[in-house]
Each structure stands twice: as structure tokens, then as C-alpha cells.
Fold:
Amino acid sequence: MKVLFLDIDGVLNNFQSRNFGETFNVSACKNLNSLLKKVPELKIVVSSAWRMHGLAYMKKVLKGNGIDPDRIVDITGNEQGERGHQIQCWLDRNPGVTGMVIIDDESDMGALKDKLVKTSSYIGLTSTHVTEAIKMLEKPM
Structure:
């Protein structure tokens, strides 16, 4: 399984649109859909602080922004520490990941930093990031 660990604020929400509510930046969502279309087997695990609202909520909010909720399979856990540690804990609980990418505007990924596509919190997810994510997903774990 190929997995995208997705942050929300700074990726789908950004300072350019100045909207940090449930309606995300249209361009960023289109870019996420482009990635999902180009990598049809890609599944989303929400790694954002938004995960605290639960998986059903995340599916609803992402669906409301045009993202297929069936592509969202999980959220990371509540482990203490940096986001990279939380993602590693999820990976440890879910063997069988053959490819992964983290899309986030922060760099606290620890040993997983080489799997990060870093966005700008002012711009969010761009087509350049999509190209970078596809290359990342082609790399072996």
C-alpha cells in the first residue's frame, strides 16, 4: 500500500487564502486530487492536528472540499513527540506500506525527513509538490 501522510494547515489551508476553517484552498485541493488521480492506489492517513476530531470527521471535511473520502483510511495516533515519531508509530502498527510520502509545512519528521515534501504555509500544496510527491512514492521504503 502507498500512503500519503497529510497535514492540513499549511498544506490545504494556507495564509494566501486566509481561511483556516473547514473550507480549504481550492487550488491546493485540486492539486491533492491531481496527486490522487496520478497515483490511484494512494491512500491518505491524516497526520495533522485535525486528526484529533476523528476519522469520520476528517472524511466529512475532506469530502466537503472535493476529496474522495474513500481514499482516507486512517489518522495517526496520539503519541507524544514530533510528527515524525507519530508517523513512525503508525507505520509500526501497519506493516505492508510499500511507498510513502509526508506532505507538511513543518519539518519535525526525525528519521522520516527524507520522505517529506515540505510546503510553504503561505502557499500550500502546489503542482510542483505533486511532482515531488510522485517521485518520492516511487522510491523504495
